[in-house]
């Protein structure tokens, strides 16, 4: 009750009115009807929740806390115009302080206080939700264009709700009321990402946009040095893929190969011309990952001029960053002794349970088929037949066994390699290999940073204490949790469990243009082509961007032109994994804030889940019944992703818990033997 009273006393009616106006302006960006309750209400909820959190922090922690001891005085120095003064203990660039100065001047705030500086992150949180919505909508628009649909795309409800949940992401939301760099850094990277998504539209980017891309890249690096992996490696890599996928080589009939050499030479030439292998992620196996990377690398090397014409802004940012590293004597500003780059492969094990915990509601579709297994067994025991609850609907083409071409004249080597890839016989050894690699990483590359053990104010201290530091045996048992989490998270990124087998014609429109596996049978290649006729995408001319003025209501999943459920391409997922790896394995300290951007990009790529689409028979039966409960669930599940509402509730619950721990459970550091107060008797608080 005290917290409610604090919020009531702190937030004025004027602030609520301004928050409502701000929510209306943000809604105006995504729709011509800012008064629609759905759009305004979501942004206003984020504002009220974040403003309430700021009120609680200001009331209970009016003075700078933890890293704010460094950030707030440095920002106040900048507010006074002394831009050459710098605290050597600060390791990140001055982007946050420069934006704070601009914020104070724009809103004519006379003095840079702890409250006014913290309130900047409140604005940044609202803008983060807006640009997250823009980015997700642009992803869907680019998918529509690849399918030959250049019509104006209204903002989808999935894009809008995803953006709100990103703003509520607990690790990010917590710092919306503290003067840390995380919210502003995320915002700048999302602005750069929104610009990148426009650059990969059918219309080629102009010179001014390329210069703007360089400026945004530099701006992102001014927030945090590790952003280079996202604005250069991830976005630059995606633009390389865009170039090679836009080459449009002439169609050539695939011949019948007699030797392995003929096959390799033919596909090497085709890859060089731009016939890359880049299937949707739900159709890709590990060998597809390999041929995807190989084909794109060959195409990029063989078309350097076209690639450089597109990616030179990212190359420029990389060169400037390299120059900074040489000039500075390292990546880190200030105190370099405690921030030495180290190869820390275990980070890529920790990330999966982190994602699985925060994305738990999203993983429900991936877990549902596991519940069906005992149902099928019981049904077979009782009725003698398996229940029709399969989540893997097969098309007629995939049910019938394909007729393989005559192989009597083909070389033994070719037939063996062909069989190896077609049967996926390697997959079990692959899984075993990942387990062995994970165990080796745990044994040889588990790094415990001194900061992790020395500071019991952070949740990571307790996570390590009761897991990794508990015993050596528990470290190895955790590999099972890492592996299961990885499989669930990756499966959700691909669009729940595969609702089509990897060799089933896809419903993703022009995806067949990018199915160029050297060992895919001619019959199955023909099945792809006949099922998904490629529609040419123009390489020049005016691009039709999502029409923000055409949106009357937010688009739902059951609309014929919805692309919310489309899985990302294999190349996009692999580039995300590469950027994530580079940003984490170089950090010796395990810090939840380091996982923010990997999670945000993961969340933007996750496709929507349709309950009715995964279980069409059950949906049809439920909608024909007179019982309202299942009928309502399946009816709503046909139009929206039900897991998003659960994700919102989950995030709000976690945020309320961490807010309570921070403001209501303070403690003091004391000498265990003498009871003497340490750290000057200052109050300590729990945080991420």
From TrEMBL:
Pathway: Protein modification; protein glycosylation
Positions of transmembrane segments: 12-30, 37-56, 166-194, 206-223, 288-305, 312-330, 350-371, 419-441
Catalytic reaction list: an alpha-D-Glc-(1->3)-alpha-D-Glc-(1->3)-alpha-D-Man-(1->2)-alpha-D-Man-(1->2)-alpha-D-Man-(1->3)-[alpha-D-Man-(1->2)-alpha-D-Man-(1->3)-[alpha-D-Man-(1->2)-alpha-D-Man-(1->6)]-alpha-D-Man-(1->6)]-beta-D-Man-(1->4)-beta-D-GlcNAc-(1->4)-alpha-D-GlcNAc-diphospho-di-trans,poly-cis-dolichol + a di-trans,poly-cis-dolichyl beta-D-glucosyl phosphate = a alpha-D-Glc-(1->2)-alpha-D-Glc-(1->3)-alpha-D-Glc-(1->3)-alpha-D-Man-(1->2)-alpha-D-Man-(1->2)-alpha-D-Man-(1->3)-[alpha-D-Man-(1->2)-alpha-D-Man-(1->3)-[alpha-D-Man-(1->2)-alpha-D-Man-(1->6)]-alpha-D-Man-(1->6)]-beta-D-Man-(1->4)-beta-D-GlcNAc-(1->4)-alpha-D-GlcNAc-diphospho-di-trans,poly-cis-dolichol + a di-trans,poly-cis-dolichyl phosphate + H(+)
Biological process terms in GO annotation: dolichol-linked oligosaccharide biosynthetic process
Any one Gene Ontology molecular-function term assigned to this protein's record: dolichyl pyrophosphate Glc2Man9GlcNAc2 alpha-1,2-glucosyltransferase activity
GO terms for cellular component: endoplasmic reticulum membrane
Source species, domain of life: Eukaryota
Keyword flag Glycosyltransferase: yes
EC number: 2.4.1.256
Alphabetized UniProt keyword annotations: Endoplasmic reticulum, Glycosyltransferase, Membrane, Transferase, Transmembrane, Transmembrane helix
Membrane topology annotation: Multi-pass membrane protein
Main location: endoplasmic reticulum
InterPro entries named in the record: Alg10
Cell location: Endoplasmic reticulum membrane
Family: Belongs to the ALG10 glucosyltransferase family.
PANTHER family, per database record: ALPHA-1,2-GLUCOSYLTRANSFERASE ALG10, DOL-P-GLC:GLC(2)MAN(9)GLCNAC(2)-PP-DOL ALPHA-1,2-GLUCOSYLTRANSFERASE-RELATED
Function: Dol-P-Glc:Glc(2)Man(9)GlcNAc(2)-PP-Dol alpha-1,2-glucosyltransferase that operates in the biosynthetic pathway of dolichol-linked oligosaccharides, the glycan precursors employed in protein asparagine (N)-glycosylation. The assembly of dolichol-linked oligosaccharides begins on the cytosolic side of the endoplasmic reticulum membrane and finishes in its lumen. The sequential addition of sugars to dolichol pyrophosphate produces dolichol-linked oligosaccharides containing fourteen sugars, including two GlcNAcs, nine mannoses and three glucoses.
Protein name (record): Dol-P-Glc:Glc(2)Man(9)GlcNAc(2)-PP-Dol alpha-1,2-glucosyltransferase
């Amino acid at each position: 009750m005290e917290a409610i009273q604090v919020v009531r006393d702190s937030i004025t009616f004027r602030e609520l009115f301004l928050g409502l106006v701000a929510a209306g302006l943000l809604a105006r960006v995504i729709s011509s009807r800012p008064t629609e309750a759905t759009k305004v209400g979501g942004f206003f909820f984020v504002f009220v929740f974040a403003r309430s959190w700021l009120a609680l922090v200001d009331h209970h922690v009016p003075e700078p806390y933890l890293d704010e001891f460094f950030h707030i005085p440095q920002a106040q120095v900048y507010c006074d115009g002394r831009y050459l003064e710098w605290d050597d203990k600060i390791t990140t660039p001055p982007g946050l302080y420069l934006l704070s100065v601009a914020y104070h001047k724009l809103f004519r705030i006379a003095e840079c206080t702890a409250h006014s500086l913290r309130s900047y992150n409140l604005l940044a949180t609202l803008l983060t939700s807006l640009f997250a919505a823009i980015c997700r909508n642009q992803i869907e628009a680019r998918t529509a264009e690849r399918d030959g649909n250049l019509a104006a795309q209204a903002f989808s409800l999935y894009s809008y709700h995803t953006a709100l949940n990103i703003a509520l992401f607990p690790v990010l939301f917590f710092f919306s009321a503290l003067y840390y760099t995380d919210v502003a850094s995320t915002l700048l990277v999302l602005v750069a990402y929104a610009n990148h998504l426009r650059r990969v539209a059918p219309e080629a980017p102009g010179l001014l946009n390329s210069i703007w891309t360089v400026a945004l890249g530099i701006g992102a690096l001014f927030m945090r040095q590790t952003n280079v992996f996202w604005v250069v490696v991830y976005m630059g890599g995606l633009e390389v893929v865009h170039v090679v996928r836009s080459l449009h080589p002439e169609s050539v009939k695939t011949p019948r190969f007699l030797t392995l050499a003929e096959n390799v030479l033919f596909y090497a030439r085709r890859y060089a011309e731009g016939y890359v292998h880049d299937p949707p992620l739900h159709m890709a196996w590990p060998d597809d990952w390999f041929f995807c990377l190989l084909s794109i690398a060959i195409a990029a090397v063989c078309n350097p001029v076209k690639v450089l014409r597109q990616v030179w802004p990212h190359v420029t940012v990389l060169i400037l960053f390299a120059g900074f590293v040489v000039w500075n004597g390292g990546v880190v500003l200030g105190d370099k002794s405690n921030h030495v780059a180290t190869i820390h492969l275990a980070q890529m094990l920790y990330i999966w349970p982190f994602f699985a915990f925060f994305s738990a509601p999203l993983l429900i579709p991936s877990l549902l088929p596991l519940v069906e297994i005992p149902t099928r067994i019981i049904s077979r025991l009782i009725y003698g037949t398996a229940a029709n609850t399969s989540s893997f609907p097969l098309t007629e083409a995939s049910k019938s066994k394909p007729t393989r071409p005559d192989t009597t004249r083909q070389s033994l080597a070719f037939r063996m390699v062909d069989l190896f890839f077609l049967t996926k016989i390697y997959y079990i050894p692959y899984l075993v290999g990942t387990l062995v690699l994970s165990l080796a990483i745990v044994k040889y590359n588990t790094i415990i940073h001194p900061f992790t053990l020395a500071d019991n104010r952070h949740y990571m201290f307790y996570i390590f204490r009761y897991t990794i530091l508990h015993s050596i045996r528990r470290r190895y048992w955790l590999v099972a949790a890492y592996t299961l989490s990885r499989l669930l998270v990756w499966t959700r990124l691909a669009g729940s469990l595969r609702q089509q087998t990897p060799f089933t014609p896809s419903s993703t429109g022009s995806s067949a243009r990018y199915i160029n596996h050297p060992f895919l049978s001619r019959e199955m290649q023909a099945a792809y082509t006949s099922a998904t006729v490629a529609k040419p995408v123009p390489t020049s001319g005016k691009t039709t961007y999502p029409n923000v003025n055409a949106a009357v209501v937010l688009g739902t999943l059951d609309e014929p032109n919805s692309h919310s459920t489309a899985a990302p391409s294999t190349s996009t997922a692999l580039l995300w994994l590469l950027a994530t790896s580079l940003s984490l394995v170089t950090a010796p300290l395990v810090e939840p804030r380091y996982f923010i951007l990997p999670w945000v990009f993961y969340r933007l790529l996750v496709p929507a889940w349709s309950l009715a689409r995964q279980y069409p028979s059950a949906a049809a039966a439920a909608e024909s019944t007179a019982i309202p409960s299942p009928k309502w669930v399946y009816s709503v599940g046909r139009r929206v992703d039900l897991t998003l509402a659960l994700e919102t509730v989950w995030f709000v619950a976690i945020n309320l818990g961490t807010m309570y721990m921070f403001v209501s459970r303070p403690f003091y550091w004391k000498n265990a033997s003498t009871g003497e107060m340490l750290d000057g008797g200052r109050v300590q608080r729990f945080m991420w």
